[in-house]
Amino acid sequence: MQHVLRLSLTALAAAAFVFVAGLASAQTPAPSPKQIKLTEPQVTGFISAHKDMAEAFDKVPSEKSDAAIDAQLDSVAKRFGFKDHKEYEEVAANVIMVFIAIDPQTKAFTDPPTLTKQKLEEAKVDKSLSDEDRKQVLEDLAEELKVVQPIIHPSNVDLVKKFYDKIEPLLQ
Fold first, then answer.
1. CA distances (Å), 135 to each of 111, 132, 138, 145, in order?
2. Cβ neighbour number for residue 28 with a 10 Å cutoff
3. How far apart are CA 133 and CA 85, in angstroms?
4. What is the rounded distance in angstroms from the CA atom of residue 96 to the CA atom of residue 11?
5. CA angle, 42 then 47 then 48, to 5°
């Protein structure tokens, strides 16, 4: 159950990240991001840029125009080898999509739809959940099943596994 809870929390963190990054709307379930084939420089760039990008998101004054905000975020992303912050966000979404499907103890990867189905089955029989919590978890997982996609680039799994120990602290 700890694994299910960890994955659920990580998925929520990923969804929050995607929302903040502007990839989802508040009124509809977050669509799965466009899958790209990651490269090692993109993954290491994501790792290196993560702190600065998070700080840039936090420091964005609300009175700034969208163009000024984009320019500020683009500047940070470019320092780490991305053409702009949209490329950084796309890479981050793909890294997170793979990361949440890797077991932290065994480092075994389970394709996201299969993992979501497993979490759904585990939640159905989890006696530690109240009826209300179980209902909410089951609803959330049913919604997740509607949008979750299999990973289409197996090399992404290998790259994220290679850098797993450097990515994990970033997503805590």
1. 24, 5, 5, 15
2. 8
3. 37
4. 9
5. 95
pLDDT value for 33 = 82
Using the structure block, give the residue that is written with the tokens 């029989």.
Answer: 125
pLDDT given at position 73:
92
pLDDT along the chain (172 residues), means of 10: 37 41 42 89 97 87 79 94 96 96 96 95 94 95 93 97 97 87
172 C-beta neighbours (distance < 10 Å), count: 7
Instruction: Name every residue whose Cβ is closer than 8 Å to that of residue 102 and which is 6 or more positions away in sequence.
Output: 108, 109, 157, 160, 161, 164
- Hey, what are 82's tokens? 């991305």
Residue 112 tokens read as 């996201």
CB 85 within 8 A of CB 76: yes
d(CA 172, CA 110): 20
Any idea how long the chain is? Answer: 172
CA distance 129 to 131: 6
pTM of the model: 0.76
- Give the model confidence (pLDDT) of 145-157 as tens digits: 999 999 999 999 9
